[in-house]
Amino acid sequence: MDWLIASIKRLIEKFSHAFEGLWQGILYDRSISIQILLATISVIFFSFMKLNYIEWLFIISAIFFVLISEYLNSAIEDVCDLLVQKYDLHVKEIKNIAAASVLLAAFYAIVVAFIIIGRRIL
Predict the structure, then answer these.
(1) Chain centroid to CA 52
(2) CA atoms of 19 and 68, how far apart (whole Å)
(3) How confident is the model at residue 5 (pLDDT cuts 50, 70, 90)?
(4) Residue 43 lies in a domain
């Protein structure tokens, strides 16, 4: 029974670290804060539309796709900055590729939004 209690404690600790990371991203990373703000505005905006559950799934998935990409991008940038203090073309390339993932996620979110809004306008 002790192993079960120890496993549960480890699991709680892991979740605690994950939630701490979520909070630190919001507090210390401007890009993440902006994405959280845009996600909140999007949810408020779309809540005024009568979306079906499939449309909500696409909206929520797009929002989480952007947020996950932004968190990973920020982590990659921070690791690069910690490991390499001087300008390095390889680090620049790594950061650009990570930023491109956020851009692609944002494009996806915009396409989803336009399709859902467009169906209601047309």
Answers:
(1) 23
(2) 14
(3) confident
(4) yes
CA–CA separation, 67 and 36 (whole Å): 7
C-alpha–C-alpha distance, residues 41 and 44, integer Å: 5
pLDDT tens, position by position, 10-29: 999 999 999 999 999 999 99
Place of tokens 């994950």: 18
Residue identified by tokens 């079960």 is 4
Which residue range is the domain that position 113 belongs to? 30-121
Residue 101 belongs to domain with CATH number: 1.10.287.3610
Higher-confidence position of 122 and 56: 56
Please tell me the distance from the alpha carbon of residue 70 to that of residue 57, in angstroms, as a whole number. 20
The answer to whether position 4 is within a domain reads: no
- Structurally, the chain folds into a number of domains equal to 1
Q: How far apart are CA 62 and CA 70, in angstroms?
A: 12
